[in-house]
Design a protein that fits this description.
heterodimer, A: alpha+beta, 3-stranded mixed beta sheet, 8 helices, elongated, B: Alpha-Beta Plaits, about 30% helix, globular
Chain lengths: ~270, ~300
């Protein structure tokens, strides 16, 4: 018993009519897509021409690098750059009667002793050389004592052109042979320093050659490095494992204090 | 009829367990809020702070350091100088790998003592190779070893920094003098920047730094070496609390071989300019286009 369908009701769209409508929608959609694409292309072109307003120009300051500053008045820096005068240049460390170490000026002995400087490189100095120089290790190329020390006055140095220099002016003597290092040093690219990069804000102290290089044995040896980071994923090496973080640091701090007057790191035996 | 039947008992037990599990699950939230003062939570971004706000913030941070670490510190806000663009150069011919720079950084920047953290990683490299993958940053033997060279790597203060671009909250940015900084109070600890840095220069504070009161460096600044909170990213700032007042960075002063050169790139008479103009200079991973301000050079 089927109820008859009233003919006034709309019929469901047939499969064929749906098939006809779909391309129309697609065409309309494609037009819109094209319009959106065109608009965004124009916007992007304009944006790239004008430049993104939010992004900074990271290299702008580089233009200032090579601007001529000849017309600007040269301001003399307020503070000075000084070069240290290490104690080593003021005498020799000798054993003191109380068991400590005392620094003795060259003239103390050499004022009364007539010493004939060896013309060969002594390695090490033999006990027949008296006084605190015994055991001095010497390894400085093919030089011998008289190349740097003034034979006429052992408390002075002697340059290659036979000028006598006070030991405190050793920089000039060293630079005779080590010209490249001297050039670097003059431009702040060799040797350590402390203080200020801006000499208008504060002074700067530069290391002397002999702060780091033993003039008798100038090459750097091997040194014990500071402890590595204890990263979570890196196992602690066995010989560092026995002391904790703060202990390790404390011993390093003491170590630094010991070397307050010597910039050379501790040499490994 | 009976007050306690099987169903009620099970319901009650289930509800109790559920409540306990929920309490346990939200516990970190309470820990978090306990460590976070209301002022800190409401603090604005560093660059939006008015001078008065900033003074209040600095005073609060000093008080917090006193409370948590027992140390009297001065936290300053030091702004970039005009006409200064910082640059750093390192001489690979003279570096002996002694890690003095890393140690000085550790002390200067109030790093966590337990992990012995530092912004500088010194790589022991095979001579003739630039393969960073083969570099060893945890060597622990006398240096320098024959056949090896040493390459300290720290933040390169890129002119085109990839790290600042990935920050979802703009907690890190490049300052006028070229130093890339982090607002530790704005950082959400997502570590995107750490992943974006091609030099592995950023560090994450997994835990609040452990450091005793007498070891704390009291000369601090908001954007550099103040003690970082847990869960934020930190990085080398060229010691801006020192360098913006004209002083040399701590790593340079510690270097026993003078391998480090620091200065103002805009000053034609500066040491850094002489090195850049007269030495064989290169930057790490130049092909990435990050344009570092940290240069490496050789003597010969």
């Amino acid at each position: 018993m089927h109820a008859s369908i009233p003919s006034s009701l709309p019929r469901p769209p047939s499969a064929s009519s749906r098939a006809l409508e779909a391309p129309l929608v697609a065409v309309r959609g494609a037009k819109r897509t094209r319009r959106i694409l065109a608009v965004s292309c124009v916007t992007f072109a304009a944006w790239s021409l004008v430049g993104c307003p939010q992004s900074e120009d990271h290299g702008a300051w580089r233009a200032e690098l090579f601007t001529e500053r000849e017309n600007e008045p040269r301001i003399e820096p307020t503070f000075d750059e000084t070069i240290r005068t290490p104690d080593r240049l003021r005498g020799i460390a000798a054993p003191a009667p109380d068991g400590g170490v005392v620094r003795v000026a060259c003239f103390t002995c050499h004022g009364i002793l007539q010493v004939e400087l060896s013309t060969r490189a002594p390695t090490p100095l033999q006990p027949d050389v008296l006084g605190p120089h015994v055991g001095l290790l010497f390894d400085h190329g093919t030089l011998d004592c008289a190349h740097c020390h003034d034979p006429a006055d052992p408390s002075h140095l002697r340059t290659a052109d036979a000028r006598s220099l006070p030991t405190t002016e050793a920089l000039e003597l060293c630079s005779q042979c080590h010209g490249l290092q001297w050039t670097d040093f003059q431009h702040g690219a060799h040797g350590g320093m402390r203080g200020h990069w801006d000499l208008n804000a504060g002074p700067r102290e530069r290391n002397h050659c002999v702060d780091c290089h033993d003039p008798h044995r100038p090459a750097f040896g091997q040194y014990r490095p500071m402890p590595p980071p204890r990263d979570r994923f890196v196992p602690t090496p066995p010989h560092r494992a026995n002391h904790g973080g703060s202990d390790a640091h404390a011993s390093d701090a003491e170590h630094d204090a010991d070397e307050a007057h010597d910039d050379r790191p501790e040499e490994t035996p | 009829m009976s007050a306690l039947n099987r169903r009620r008992l099970l319901k009650g037990a289930g509800a109790t367990l559920g409540a306990l599990a929920f309490a346990k699950a939200i516990e970190p939230v309470f820990e978090f809020t306990a460590n976070l003062s209301g002022d800190e939570f409401l603090q604005k971004h560093y660059r939006e702070l008015s001078p008065d706000d900033l003074r209040t913030v600095l005073a609060r941070l000093e008080a917090e350091t006193k409370e948590k670490y027992g140390a009297d510190v001065t936290i300053r806000d030091i702004r970039p100088q005009d006409g200064v663009q910082f640059g750093y150069a390192l001489n690979l011919s003279t570096c002996i790998g002694c890690r003095r720079c890393a140690e000085a950084c550790h002390v200067e920047n109030n790093h966590d003592r337990k992990t012995h953290q530092s912004y500088i990683r010194v790589f022991e490299m095979q001579q003739g190779s630039f393969d960073m993958e083969q570099g060893d940053a945890t060597y622990d033997h006398p240096v320098p070893q024959p056949g090896r060279y040493y390459m300290p790597v720290q933040c390169q203060q890129c002119d085109n920094p990839p790290c600042t671009k990935v920050c979802p909250v703009e907690a890190t940015w490049k300052e006028k003098d070229g130093i890339v900084v982090v607002d530790y109070n704005w950082c959400i600890g997502c570590r995107y920047c750490e992943a974006a840095c091609p030099y592995h220069a950023r560090r994450f504070n997994w835990e609040a730094p452990e450091i005793s009161a007498e070891e704390i460096n009291p000369n601090q600044s908001y954007l550099s070496n103040r003690i970082r909170p847990q869960g934020v990213v930190e990085k080398c700032t060229f010691c801006l609390h020192r360098t913006r007042t004209g002083a040399l960075p701590a790593c340079l002063e510690a270097c026993p071989t003078g391998a480090r050169v620091f200065g103002n790139l805009l000053d034609p008479d500066s040491e850094i300019r002489w090195v850049l103009e007269n030495k064989r200079v290169f930057v790490l991973k130049e092909e990435l286009g990050a344009r570092p301000r940290f240069f490496y050079f050789f003597d010969v």
